[in-house]
Amino acid sequence: MTSIDVQDLTKVYGTTRAVDALTFGVRPGRVTGFLGPNGAGKSTTMRLVLGLDRPTSGTATVGGRAYAALEDPLRHVGALLDAQAAHGSRTARGHLLALAVSNRLPARRVDEVLEEAGLMSVAGHRIKTFSLGMRQRLGIAAALLGDPGVVMLDEPSNGLDPEGIIWIRELMRRLAGEGRTVLVSSHLMNETATFADHLVVLGRGRLLADTPMREFIEGHSHPRVRVRTTDPDALRGVLSGKGYVLGAAQDGRWTVEGAKAEEVGAIAARAGIPVLELADEQASLEQAYLALTADETQFAATAPTTRQEV
Ligand SMILES: Nc1ncnc2c1ncn2[C@@H]1O[C@H](COP(=O)(O)OP(=O)(O)OP(=O)(O)O)[C@@H](O)[C@H]1O
User: Fold this and answer.
1) Contacts with 178 (C-beta within 8 Å, 6 or more apart), sequence order
2) Which entry of 43, 59, 138, 216 is 20 to 30 Å from 226 by CA?
3) Where in the numbering of this chain does the ABC transporter domain appear (predicted)?
4) What pTM, to 2 d.p., does this model score?
């Protein structure tokens, strides 16, 4: 099966290094989430892989070859970059048929992908009447037209309703399960956590992480315990004796940063303090991502006081 390989890739626009000496691989059989703050270089990287832009230096290949060198490229790589790109005056079926014909793909694929994308009932409607979510579905249908081994989707959940979000998640899982190479950019961390096996994270054009999802979350978050007690003052006292701080209460529960449930439980039990609820907090992808990218966000709203402190 086919991999995407990005090797020492750099793209400079004027004074902006949109992509900066980037090296990573996207492997088959798993969904790779492509993350990074606004302007980190995700779309530029995807455009370079698709040969839509020329690298300043370095290479981006699919199955070891530049996209431009692929014969019948849609049979190898399907991509959704900009869902607005389709001609508004065409029907969904007309648009896909034109793509199929110009790329020497069998016309029967058109109805197959319309069905797959849930667009069969509107296949004869003009695209200009489509909502953003329907355009996303059409863009994904187009990406699947050539039955490609590599699928790249830029923000595919954009504009999709909850049912559409579940559909895209299941579609990506299935494509990876079939052994395809799936690269998906997203700003929605909770969403990405439901479908990605692996993560590639960019910040200001550079590689920040290329790791399995689980390792990423474990490596960029710290343990935290949630506890409910009838005697918070006593618990605060015994915990502070062990170097832990009982945080502020929220909904009748307290948090202890940097601790494990078994440690807090043992400390409370030794002091005879009643504990009504005790659990390790599951670190989320969002927490881990924010911890990693805190210094890499180009367009963060920063309070003036924080600025002066830096
Ligand atoms: N055609 C272009 N001309 C000039 N600058 C560009 C061009 N395309 C991208 N850039 C710049 O390159 C940087 C990376 O942009 P890119 O769109 O690749 O980031 P991104 O990670 O996809 O961001 P987002 O999450 O906002 O989509 C940004 O600073 C952007 O302004």
Assistant:
1) none
2) 216
3) 4-229
4) 0.85
Choose one of 12, 13, 17, 46 to mutate for the ligand 1 pocket test, by most ligand atoms within 8 angstroms of C-beta: 13
The CATH architecture assigned to 4-218 reads 3-Layer(aba) Sandwich (3.40)
Share of the chain above pLDDT 90, in %: 76
Q: What is the pLDDT of residue 302?
A: 53
Q: How far apart are CA 275 and CA 177, in angstroms?
A: 44
Protein residue closest via CA to atom 13 of ligand 1? 18
38 touches ligand 1 (CB under 6 Å): yes
Q: Residue 94: what residue type?
A: G
What is the distance between the alpha carbons of residues 198 and 210, in angstroms, rounded to a whole number? 8
**Do residues 239 and 267 touch, judged by C-beta distance below 8 A?**
yes
Report, in angstroms and rounded to the nearest whole number, the Rg of the chain calculated over CA atoms. 24
Pocket lining: 33 vs ligand 1, CB cutoff 6 Å: no
Tokens standing for 162?
A: 């909850």
ipTM above 0.95, yes or no: yes
Residue 148 in contact with ligand 1 by CB distance below 6 A: no
Architecture of domain 222-282: 2-Layer Sandwich (3.30)
- Write the residue with the smallest CA distance to atom 8 of ligand 1: 44
How is the chain split into domains, by residue range?
4-218, 222-282
What are the phi and psi torsion angles at 246 (to 5°)?
Answer: -80, 115
* CB-ligand 1 contact for 16 (6 Å cutoff): yes
For residue 235, the number of C-alpha atoms closer than 13 Å in the C-beta half-sphere is 27
CB 31 within 8 A of CB 180: no
